[in-house]
Amino acid sequence: MNKTASNLGFRLMALTFKLRDLLRPRIEILKEAGIKPGYHVLDYGCGSGSFVIDTARLVGESGMVYAQDIHPLAIQMVRNLASKKKLMNVRTIHSDCRTGLPEKSLDVVLLYDAFHDLSRPNDVLKEIHRVLRSDGILSFSDHHMKEEEIVSKVTKSGSFRLLRKGERTYRFSKER
């Protein structure tokens, strides 16, 4: 697929997400993640930034939101969104796996509707495990996958265990 087609597809997806977010605000999903003021949160596979504004508000000025994506347009959209909303607690990371963040530096990682599309899912889970604090939470949702598949794929390495299933997300704790 050429870059123009890829960019057009991404823009169409972003428009679809904007409409979805108007009908079903993302804050209800974020509430299940247990995000608190001062937290450092990674939105892994942030896409067009559907969760960024609400997450930035939840962590407040003393917290930080890292928005990571492989697609350059995603990074640009999140930067524009953060600038427009004057969010000083949002940083972007352009990468397909490694975040470049320090070990054990995050309280929560959001992995929403991206896992099914990852080229190296096990490497991504290793990276998430690396950057989460020992009491950190992986908040996971992927409507392309069934419950058994989600739990199996996230827990099979022994790095995470299921804490609880919410209405819209799964909360995993870090093991080892």
Task: Write structural notes for this entry.
The chain is an alpha/beta fold. It has a single domain, classed as 3-Layer(aba) Sandwich (Rossmann fold), CATH 3.40.50.150. It contains 6 helices and 7 strands. Strands 3-2-1-4-5-7-6 form a 7-stranded mixed beta sheet, with helices on both faces. It is globular, with a radius of gyration of 15 Å. The mean pLDDT is 90.
What is the gist of this entry?
By secondary structure, this protein is an alpha/beta fold. The protein has helices at 3-23, 27-31, 52-59, 72-84, 121-131, 147-155; strands at residues 40-44, 64-69, 90-94, 106-112, 132-141, 160-165, 170-174.
Q: Overall pLDDT, averaged?
A: 90
H/E element string? Answer: HHEHEHEEHEHEE
| CATH topology call | Rossmann fold
Count of helices? 6
List key phrases describing it.
single chain; 176 residues; alpha/beta; Rossmann fold; seven-stranded mixed beta sheet
What is the element layout, followed by pairings?
Layout: H1 3-23, H2 27-31, E1 40-44, H3 52-59, E2 64-69, H4 72-84, E3 90-94, E4 106-112, H5 121-131, E5 132-141, H6 147-155, E6 160-165, E7 170-174
Parallel strand pairs: 1-2, 1-4, 2-3, 4-5
Antiparallel strand pairs: 5-7, 6-7
